[in-house]
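2024-03-11 09:14:02 INFO receiving multi-entity request
2024-03-11 09:14:02 INFO entity count = three
2024-03-11 09:14:03 INFO echoing inputs for audit
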Amino acid sequence: MKIVLQNLTKKFPARGRKSQGEVTAVDDFTCEIPDGELMGLLGPSGCGKSTTLNMICGLEKPTGGNIFFGEEDVTALAPELRGVGMVFQNYALYPHLSVRDNIRFPLENLKGKNKLSKEEMERRVMEAAGLVQIEELMDRRPKELSGGQQQRVAIARALVKMPRVLLLDEPLSNLDARLRLQTREEIRRIQKKTGITTVFVTHDQDEAMSISDRIAVMNHGVLMQLGKPQEVYDNPANLFVAKFLGTPPINVFEGTVENGMLYIGDDAVLPAGGVPDQKVWTGIRPEGFILKEDGPFACQLNRVEVMGRDVSIVSTHSACAGQTVRSIINAENRVDTGSSEVRFALKPNKVFLFHRDTEERILFDIR
Amino acid sequence: MEQTDFEKVQKKSDAKNKIQKAVTYILLTIWALIVLFPFYWMILTSVKSYGAYNAEHTPAFFTLSPTIQNYVDAFTTVPLVGYLLNTVIFAVITTAIMVVVSTLAAYAFARLDFRGKNLVFTLFLALMMIPSELVVITNFVTITNLDLRNTMTGLVLPSVTSVFYIYLLKENFEQVPDELYRAAKVDGTSDLKYLWKVMIPICRPTIVTITILKIIECWNSYVWPRLITDDQAYYLVSNGIQEIRENGFGRENIPAMMAAVVVISVPLIILFLIFRNKIMEGVSRGGMKG
Amino acid sequence: MNSNNKKAWLYLLPALLFLIAFLVYPLIDVFIYSMEEGFNFASQTYFGVGGYNFSYVLHDPYFLQAVRNTFILVFITVPVSTALALLISLGLSSIKALRDLYQTIYFLPYVTNTLAVGLVFMILFQKTEYTDGLVNMVINLFGGSSVDFIDGPYWAKMFVLCFYTVWVVMPFKILVLTSALASVNQDYYKAARVDGTPKLRVFTKITLPMISPMIFYLVITGFIGAFKAYSDAVALFGTDLNAAGMNTIVGYVYDMLYGDSGGYPSYASAAAIILFVIVLTITCINLLVSRKKVQYERR
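2024-03-11 09:21:47 INFO inference complete, emitting structure
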């Protein structure tokens, strides 16, 4: 089932008695999620991603815009009529019911011609349980399960009614690091197997990048960029997206373009063809540095961190917007730790220019 | 086809929600009226004149000629001021002693280490289960034998104890981090000074809450004062109102009686409106009436 | 260590003195009183030791009347007030506008003097030679005939007593239940909504099990409280409850102790102990039932 969001907007009345007006949680959000894909909705906390999810789910009514499931406009529809399955951040498993009863719960709500026989219910429950591999836990109560197991039960409960759309709200945030890695692969596997169009909310870019077919980056309620994870990483549309994606994060410098040349400080670091003279923000990915003795870009060497396959060079530069400049280079390179200066050449496709005020991306010709 | 179907279902459930909401508000309002009506009626009756009230065969829901004569009567023909004063004195003394005693005991349980602490505390908790009806008999005899009937001392002494408040305070005291105590000890602060300068200010909200709850309890206490006083000069408001009802203005002067009821009820209602949140929070943490 | 011990006991001393003098000693004493036959209050002497006091109390028609009244009162008011409080709390938690106002109003009976407001109930329900009273006016409006609820037939008096008792205990129950309802994680309701759970099913399958510990708490404390009913009855029917036929067990205890029929602390003690045994039994039964019903709290 394809999901289409059209100019979706949500405004909340401002909190507190004194403040007036409204807070815009989601602003003119438009996107399309193709059938069977997994989309990661990514952004810092408070960016409106959960509100967007709740609107897709039907728990929140949009102030403006429309939501389509396939060709059907579901904007005004109550959640139970939409055929969505939702997994909550804290799983919302009913503590007084066994795993089996928890998973069966949604099926027992069906009425009239949709009503299922006992055997049919049991079959569907076992099928959902099998999908997430928790058959041996069916008679336990949620309290007796580990975080990862609870997560699986929650997914089984969302899947058991064969939803058209599966929604996951920060499903991994309550798990420890190791389990998180395991569970996100699990989610990916289940999603691929069932082929249900899935929207996945997270603030962890690693998580979103690794399992999504497509990611949507949000900030302050506005959709910043939408695309395949690698595309978004390689071609950030603005400074925010560039800074939000990637670990270690991108290095940002104040820079100027003069006569088709990019200057950082006084160093002419890279030719930037086709860009008019102006002040810019320059983002350089950590892997965009090449260690080179006569390279054009000089930084004050701070320390070198060995990471095995790579080494990470921590240095400082007066034009850098952050505290330090972090560059990652192959461990085969030898860094002269005695020297106070380190010089780099830059990979042009790892360097991005952004407008100083609007922070929008400025494309330049790579020669 | 499918779409219109959904729309119909949606509209139907919207309408259902609206009706449900309306029914909810109606039910809530009915209960609110049941709660408020006695208050309205007592105020209304208290401003009706004696003659007018007795002339009404069917009670009137309002009066066009309110009078304060009943209040004047209430204050002049029965010792209402005396009752109020007694109750205030009783409430203040009892509450003050209770707070001091409970704070000291709670501090000992929460902060000091001594042999047998757990045993003593368990016994304390067991005391919470004892119904006051069981001990009131002996207390009555004790106070009588001590010749303390019709004295403020006799009224106050058995009313001071309150295991529950000690428990509540102890729980609160225990939330104050140990580090503060250790730091104070390093600085050479005495326990009493630490209790006074650190614990009490930090736990002030709980102390205020138990103070208010105790004042309410004192204001409404009836059984013990009734047993221990038969001299009007020592009556509290509850006993006073019972006295007024049985011998006061004569059974027929209901407006004056209602004026007295208003005078007795108002102080607590004002206290409640000021400390609404504190009182409700304290009560929901386990306060029981009586 | 030793000085620390001493200091701690010093802090405890005032509380211990009060508790021992007015709680522990009387508790022991009440059992002694109850066994002393023919105790004379004036001379402080007694004839013998035995169970006569209990047998006297259990054969006293006033006591049996009091037990009957108390049981009727308990078994009507506890279920009614708990159910009503649950209904009102559900209503309260489903609305936003005016919620604070309603909550404040509902709490008012808690802070009013039972005796004082009881008088208002008395005049509302009473039928005198001057007026039939407000409640009778309403009854007449619906075509019924006037009843004197204060000095009239037994069921009418019992009705007023139950009504007033419910009115008095509701604030506490509503408060406890609304905070119980508010503490249920909203995600459960959201999950149920996404699954299209009908409202009744949400209530029986989610809300009720989630707040069941609080409901049992209210039932248990409700039973204990209702068995000790006394001042409500005094407020409505005056201090001579035996004459009105509306005495309660606690009322009987006090009557035996003091007042026109008083001076018998032994009988009072026996009655108080009987009351204590009844309350203890009922509480234990309640706890057993709740142990079975409130399952998910079990580890």
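2024-03-11 09:21:48 INFO post-check: The interface with chain B takes residues 72-73, 76-78, 81 of chain A (CB under 8 Å).
2024-03-11 09:21:48 INFO post-check: Residues 57 and 86 of chain A are 7 Å apart (CA to CA).
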